[in-house]
Amino acid sequence: MLSLSCFPSVGLGQKAILGPPKRRLVFVCRRGARCRVSLAQNVDVGNGSSGSHLDVGTSAGPSGISVSVALLMEPVSEDLLRLNNNLKTIIGDENPVLVSAAEQIFGAGGKRLRPALVFLVSRATAKIAGLTELTTQHQRLAEIVEMIHTASLIHDDVLDDSGMRRGKETIHQLYGTRVAILAGDFMFAQSSWYLANLENIQVIKLISQVIKDFASGEIKQASSLFNCDVTLEDYLLKSYYKTASLIAASTKSASIFSAVSSDICEQMYEYGKNLGLSFQVVDDILDFTQSAKNLANRLAVILPREISLHQSFLP
């Protein structure tokens, strides 16, 4: 597993090689704090390694067994079906234009990674706590997380002037920038309302911080645009704000609703944080190494190879 604790130990000119034997991330420090991230295949620590493009599709997990994304999500497939149905009604019908815009991105599909992680952690920790079924709070949390993620995507597409999202036109392309911004705001507001109704101050604080982190991450990214001397620490901080913060808060919140010990809650937070950072690092590499038609399948690379959820906890 990719962990923040791995990075400070890399000295000048040294390599930190992370990941399974056939495909690892290599962090090479140059000029003190500045580091270069590259991809290596069939890494030999003693003799160096040769660069290679990632391929997509079904990948081998840590034990060498072939693993697919669908297999990883199978324990919560029914939970995700229920979530998809609920998302269509949870946004309400007060403003037809905003509702239509929100439905456009919900209907664009996607792997629902973040709510899937909420359900996976919820079921793992619920079993530890002796619960036989997920609570309404678990289910609502997954919906809130997906709404927040969706809002961030709408705003990201405006900032990046992206024309397509998951094979469909983006909101600002269809409805204009003004409606897109308002649609994102609407989703943030709606998710905040449902969050408040969970009536758990610890979870409210965790998820509210995520929305603040989104803005911080966008500002950091904009301020370092085309800067080739960004340090690894700054890159990871930006990645935490933009990706890992939501996943970490989500996995911890799921365990809080399972009423497990504070130690397990913190472990779930660290798991979510490291998963989010790993996801973003590999995602960024794939932006440079994959063609556009393969980017939709990047989860098939990221989840099985870089991170595995400990399924021994699952019922």
Summary tags:
single chain, alpha+beta, Farnesyl Diphosphate Synthase, 2 domains, 4-stranded antiparallel beta sheet, two-stranded antiparallel sheet, Solanesyl-diphosphate synthase 3, chloroplastic, Polyprenyl_synt_CS, magnesium, transferase, metal ion binding
Main sheet overview: 4 strands, antiparallel
At the fourth level of CATH, the homologous superfamily of the largest domain is: Farnesyl Diphosphate Synthase
Helix and strand pattern: EEEEEEHHHHHEEHHHHHH
Per DSSP E runs of 2 or more residues, the count of β-strands stands at: 8
| Overall pLDDT metric | 75
Structural class: alpha+beta
CATH architecture of the largest domain: Orthogonal Bundle
Number of helices: 11
Largest sheet, spatial ordering of strands: 1-2-3-4
Residues in helix, %: 55-70%
Classified by CATH, the class of the largest domain is Mainly Alpha
The total number of structural domains is: 2
Strand residue content: 5-15%
Alpha carbon gap, first and last residue: 23 Å
Task: Write a brief structural summary.
With 315 residues, this protein is an alpha+beta fold. Helix content is 58%, strand content 11%.
Structure, described:
The protein folds into 2 domains: 4-51, no CATH class; 68-292, Farnesyl Diphosphate Synthase, CATH 1.10.600. It contains 11 helices and 8 strands. It has a 4-stranded antiparallel β-sheet with strand order 1-2-3-4, with no helix packed on it. Strands 5-6 form a two-stranded antiparallel ribbon. A two-stranded antiparallel ribbon has the order 7-8. Residues 1-59 and 305-315 have low confidence and may be disordered. The longest helix is centred in the last third of the chain and has 28 residues, at 262-289. Helix 5 (136-160) packs parallel to helix 8 (201-223). The chain is 58% helix and 11% strand. Strand 1 and strand 2 form a beta hairpin. The chain has 315 residues and is of the alpha+beta class. Its cofactor is Mg(2+). It holds the Pfam family polyprenyl_synt.
